[in-house]
Amino acid sequence: MSTxxxxxxxxxxxxxxxxxxxxxxxxxxxxxxxxxxxxxxMQISPEQGQFMALxxxxxxARRCIEVGTYTGYSALAVAMALPTDGKIIACDVxxxxxxxxxxxxREAGVxxxxxxxxxxxxxxxxxxxxxxxxxxxxxxxxxxxxxNYIKYYETLLRLIRPGGLIAADxxxxxxxxxxxxxxxxxxxxxxxxxxxxxxxxxxxxxxxxIGEGLxxxxxxxxxxxxxx
Length: 228
Prior knowledge:
The chain is built from eight helices and nine strands. It is an alpha/beta fold and 228 residues long. The strands form two sheets. The chain has a seven-stranded mixed sheet with strand order 3-2-1-4-5-9-8, sandwiched between helices. Strands 6-7 form a two-stranded antiparallel ribbon. The model has no long low-confidence stretch (mean pLDDT 92).
């Protein structure tokens, strides 16, 4: 929900991009195509997309899930980092938004790696469980309706394999203002989510101050039940 990392001063942010930014041209064009839209702040920043692609390669992910696709920038960043036989199941409720990104998926040659499902994310996650998907996925990215974050997390914990990774977006802020300074439905939901995972012994975690905050949650190998 932020097109840049808001936690850095502008000069430091520019330096980060100058010294480490490697945005592929097709991703830049998708970002430019999204920018005129009134809700374009819903798109992740290029440095976050690059960071997520690195995570995919670090854990050798092949099967991924995304809850909240918008115009498809994050799905494209992940798909481009996957091996040729990799797959990301992209969950969204808007055909209008996702239609913006599909030509760029084709241009990048990764459209076959993106399985887009237009329906509520929890419905798709429960269908994956019913199809035998427990412990079958390597990586999940959550960037959808904030009041359902805990439900997404609990369901994804069943789908992600031990050693797999869940990345939850916007956990530090919403729309540029720190959540500790807000009292909205979304900020309350994010604070509840942050508290929910803070002492969850089923995962290792780190809140990374990139974009509007990205909480990484690694499913532990040996913990099978919640310990609070």
